[in-house]
Design brief:
The protein has helices at residues 7-23, 28-34, 39-47, 66-79, 81-101, 104-115, 231-267, 279-307, 313-338, 349-359, 366-378, and strands spanning 121-124, 140-144, 147-158, 165-171, 181-187, 193-195, 209-220, 224-225, 269-270, 273-274. The strands form three sheets. Strands 1-4-5-8 form a four-stranded mixed beta sheet. It contains eleven helices and ten strands. 52% of the residues lie in helices and 15% in strands. The chain has three domains: 7-120, Butyryl-Coa Dehydrogenase, subunit A, domain 1 (Orthogonal Bundle); 122-230, Beta Barrel (Butyryl-CoA Dehydrogenase, subunit A, domain 2), CATH 2.40.110; 233-378, Up-down Bundle (Butyryl-CoA Dehydrogenase, subunit A, domain 3). The protein is of the alpha+beta class.
Length: 379
């Protein structure tokens, strides 16, 4: 396996760095403080081809693979994890679901708009009473002639307010039946479809999170994704790929926190020498560098398997679980290295610290990842 950057990855890394310096860095503190979702940034990322990284060129996308996709997320997240998160959610979840399971008509209708960020996408699985237990969802769809009537709500949904279209998984059969859920495409402006208030979050504050509400929302049968009853199985396959993106997000956070710490430790002098020369600090830096390397190897091992057409349920869960925990550990150590300054908003590590925790929760908690891993290795 060759884990070195290919030419496309090098170009994407340079492009993202340049874009971030101009379009993200000057404004990210304000976005974080005010919990602003900078939709214009995602339109510009769309112009660069980064909102449809995996979408084939025939549908208006960039037609790249997961290596290029991970590179883009990582380098965005090193600067502002909120931007990396929203870009990943748009690509992997809504767009990815339609790409994997949409029919030709659905792909032609939605993918060109999503791949260019002309439309922003949302994806709804989680509900108020069903976080990890998604099979127990209460939102329902009832068939009436050529239409489906949706009722219920989804929460913690990225782009629930600003999104132009959402893919939602709702119950069409018995509660708890894995064959009793179906995926639907729901466009903004559909009667009975609305969004709730924005969540006031600890971290990832520039990534919009809110409710999706369905009140006798009438959806044509043409908007069913795949077969009726396949929604849960589809969602699990979408999340397999989505876990790579959260692992990449985690990797970016860890690298951002580590690089800031390394730089600071060489400049900060205590007891007559840079703190990087004190063993207590140098050992922290050694641990950070080692776990980041291991995280990256797990991610690229998963990409290698996906490229070879192998199942990535196990390797994807391992990469997501480990990388997310590394992001939290590295950002915690980074804050400690910065000391009192780390607790100040003057330096970036407090934001990495706040943002990192989402990685162990979103798209399957660390506990769920361990369940997935255990099932794969025991059975």
């Amino acid at each position: 396996m060759d884990f070195n950057y290919n030419e496309n990855q090098k170009l994407i890394a340079d492009m993202v760095k340049s874009f971030a310096e101009k379009e993200i860095v000057p404004f990210m503190k304000e976005w974080d403080n005010n919990q602003t979702f900078p939709i214009e940034v995602f339109k510009k990322l769309g112009d660069l081809g980064l909102m449809g990284v995996l979408v084939p060129e025939e549908y208006g996308g960039s037609g790249f693979g997961y290596a290029e996709y991970v590179t883009a997320i990582e380098h965005l997240s090193k600067v502002d994890p909120s931007i990396g998160l929203s870009m990943a959610a748009h690509n992997s979840l809504c767009t990815g679901h339609i790409l994997q399971f949409g029919n030709e008509e659905q792909k032609k209708k939605y993918l060109p708009k999503l791949a260019t960020a002309d439309w922003i996408g949302a994806w709804g699985l989680t509900e108020h009473n069903t976080g990890s237990d998604s099979g127990g969802m209460s939102t329902t769809a009832t068939k009436e002639g050529d239409y489906w009537i949706l009722n219920g709500a989804k929460n913690f949904i990225t782009h629930a307010i600003s999104g132009n279209v959402a893919v939602v998984i709702v119950r069409t059969g018995e509660k708890g039946d894995s064959r009793g859920m179906t995926a639907f495409i729901v466009e903004k402006g559909t009667e009975g479809f609305s969004s709730g208030k924005k969540e006031d979050k600890l971290g990832m504050r520039a990534s919009e999170t809110a409710e999706l509400i369905f009140d006798n929302c009438k959806i044509p049968n043409d908007n069913v994704l795949g077969n009726v009853g396949d929604g849960f199985i589809q969602a699990m396959k979408v999340l397999d790929g989505g876990r790579i993106s959260i692992a990449a997000l985690s990797l970016g956070i860890a690298k951002g926190a580590y690089e800031a710490s390394l730089k600071y430790s060489k400049e900060r002098v205590q007891f007559g020498k840079p703190i990087s020369q004190h063993q207590a600090i140098s050992f922290k830096l050694a641990d950070m560098a080692t776990t980041i390397e291991a995280s990256e190897l797990l991610i690229y091992n998963t990409i290698s398997k996906k490229k070879a057409g192998e199942r990535i349920t196990l390797s994807g869960a391992m990469a997501k679980y480990y990388s997310s925990e590394v992001a939290v550990a590295v950002s915690t150590d980074a804050l400690q290295i910065f000391g009192g300054y780390g607790y100040s908003k003057e330096f970036p590590v407090e934001r990495f610290y706040r943002d990192s925790k989402l990685c162990t929760i979103g798209e399957g908690t660390s506990e769920i990842q361990k369940i997935v891993i255990a099932k794969q290795i025991v059975h």
